């Protein structure tokens, strides 16, 4: 996690912005005349680059959600990759929200998101995805995690494993108490123990954090505080801030004593901030619309930074 931690310390801002474009989040002028998935994908890329250009100097990272791009087929996948590459060119850490989970050769192939194309004699490996970290589903156990850990260590990249997610129905599985466990522990707490174990051999001596992070929602502050104690060497990706109801006050227990250890995500609250402006002008051109999106996103991102800083100070 050293690359991420360095980026957070450089910007003084432990936040990540979700690049999750959908038609309803774009000014309608950007989609005027759209007839094909490629047209929509091009609009997404213009939208993304406007947001990145507005924020790259005040945030450490972006988090594109691949589902939004996969919905457009090959044109969307190409835009996902171009977005990642552009974000990296602006010095941003790219945390790709892909939530992969499988075993054996399939998991190893999914891990190519980090380590590049398959190893073939006489051919170099290509980083086709341009990602610094990915999200992973632990439901299949260590068989599904090990290939990602191996890939992360080999490339000095990271993974974030789902532990306690921000959605309301997460309790249906993640809050279940494991029968016979002493002390009584929930599924999420059991996963926390596994994450510390899976990352143990990858811990950085300077920062104390491993290449294996955890996804812990801001919408569950009490459980999140407990999970922080259970995972002292595990960096948190914290979704649920803003549009999902999480607030700065919910975050304090997710950070460590040095004010590190967590990266707080906001997606709609930043890229959709333009829709909440007190007065939305009539856009004469696409450029006018993108400029308004950019200004609104920057204002919202700075407010988020201040809110998080206050939470850490507490």
UniProtKB/TrEMBL annotation:
InterPro entries, sorted: Aldolase_TIM, OMPdecase_AS, OMPdecase_type-2, OMPdeCOase_dom, RibuloseP-bd_barrel
Catalysis: reaction(s): orotidine 5'-phosphate + H(+) = UMP + CO2
GO terms of molecular function: orotidine-5'-phosphate decarboxylase activity
Keywords per UniProt: Decarboxylase, Lyase, Pyrimidine biosynthesis
EC numbers: 4.1.1.23
Enzyme type, top EC level: lyase
Matches recorded under Pfam families: OMPdecase (PF00215)
Pathway: Pyrimidine metabolism; UMP biosynthesis via de novo pathway; UMP from orotate: step 2/2
Active site: 99
Residue span(s) of domain Orotidine 5'-phosphate decarboxylase: 14-283
Sequence similarity: Belongs to the OMP decarboxylase family. Type 2 subfamily.
Annotated PANTHER family: OROTIDINE 5'-PHOSPHATE DECARBOXYLASE
Protein name as annotated: Orotidine 5'-phosphate decarboxylase
Organism expressing this protein natively: Alloscardovia venturai
């Amino acid at each position: 996690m050293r690359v991420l931690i360095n980026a957070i310390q450089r910007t003084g801002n432990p936040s990540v912005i979700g690049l999750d474009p959908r038609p309803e989040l774009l000014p309608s002028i950007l989609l005027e005349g759209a007839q094909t998935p490629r047209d929509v994908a091009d609009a997404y890329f213009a939208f993304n680059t406007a947001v990145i250009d507005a924020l790259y100097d005040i945030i450490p990272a972006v988090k594109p959600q691949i589902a939004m791009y996969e919905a457009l087929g090959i044109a969307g996948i190409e835009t996902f990759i171009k977005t990642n590459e552009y974000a990296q060119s602006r010095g941003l850490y790219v945390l790709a929200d892909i939530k992969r989970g499988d075993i054996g050769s399939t998991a190893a192939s999914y891990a190519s998101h980090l380590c590049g194309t398959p190893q073939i004699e006489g051919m170099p490996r290509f980083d086709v995805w341009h990602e610094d970290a990915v999200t992973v589903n632990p439901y299949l156990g260590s068989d599904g995690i090990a290939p990602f850990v191996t890939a992360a260590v080999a490339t000095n990249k990271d993974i974030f494993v789902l532990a306690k997610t921000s959605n309301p129905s997460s309790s249906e599985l993640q809050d279940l108490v494991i029968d016979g466990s002493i002390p009584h522990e929930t599924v999420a707490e059991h996963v926390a123990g596994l994450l510390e174990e899976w990352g143990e051999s990858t811990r950085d001596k300077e920062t104390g954090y491993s290449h294996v992070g955890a996804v812990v929602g801001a919408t569950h502050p009490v459980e999140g505080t407990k999970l922080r104690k259970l995972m002292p060497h595990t960096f948190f990706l914290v979704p649920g801030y803003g549009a999902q109801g999480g607030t700065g006050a919910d975050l304090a227990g997710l950070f460590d004593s040095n004010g590190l250890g967590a990266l707080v995500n906001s997606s709609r609250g930043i890229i959709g901030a333009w829709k909440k402006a007190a007065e939305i002008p009539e856009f004469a051109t696409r450029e006018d619309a993108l400029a308004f999106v950019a200004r609104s996103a920057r204002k919202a991102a700075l407010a988020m930074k201040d809110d998080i800083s206050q939470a850490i100070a507490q």
